[in-house]
Amino acid sequence: MGTVLLVALIAVAAAVVTLGLVRAGRREAQAERARLVEEARRQARRSLEAIWTMKDREFEEYVAELCRRDGCTGVQRVGGSGDLGADVIGHLPDGRKLVIQCKRYAKHRSVGSRDLQTFNGTARAEHGADAAVYVATCVFTRPAREFAARHNLCLIDVDLLGFWNNGTPLPTLLTLDIGHSGTHRKLRPDTPDTPD
After folding, report:
1. What dihedral do alpha carbons 100, 172, 163, 170 form, nearest 10°?
2. 102 backbone φψ class: left, alpha, beta (φ>0; ψ -120 to 50)
3. How far is it, in rounded angstroms, from Cα 93 to Cα 189?
4. What is the maximum alpha-carbon separation in the chain?
5. pLDDT tens digits along 129-173
6. Which alpha helices (DSSP H) does 46-141 contain, by range?
7. How confident is the model at residue 178 (pLDDT cuts 50, 70, 90)?
């Protein structure tokens, strides 16, 4: 009799534990579904089409928001007249000073080496950048990419911006060899996915 009672109590305890685990699993699954819905909403809002419609200040704040998402600290949007090439400043998660120039250009434009030469001269000399990053909603010319490679500038073109937007962390993008990657072909103004 005592053994039967003990077995019955163990069975009831196991059923209670199992029911609790099932309920906890359902709550976790429901929370994950809600998180995925929220993430999809954010992604839709931040699509590249939406980025091309942003005003300059909105784009700078958007880039600052991406930096914060990736663990950068002290991030500030400082762009405006007299910014000396710094639209966003802050510190990377490892403590290095970050200076970012943001250019929200039409998709069919490109950024040339002259713009990068100017940015290179101010990012480090004026702002003390350890990591100088140039973010553009278009592509960089081949000479611009070659200049960036020689001077250790990080270029985030329209393609890498899409990856950054979709969750690739900034520190990962800083390690890419832009001199040997990407494309310098401009996009057509009326079809964002077709290169010239």
Report:
1. -30
2. beta
3. 37
4. 91
5. 999 999 999 999 999 999 999 999 999 998 899 889 988 999 999
6. 48-52, 56-69, 113-123
7. low
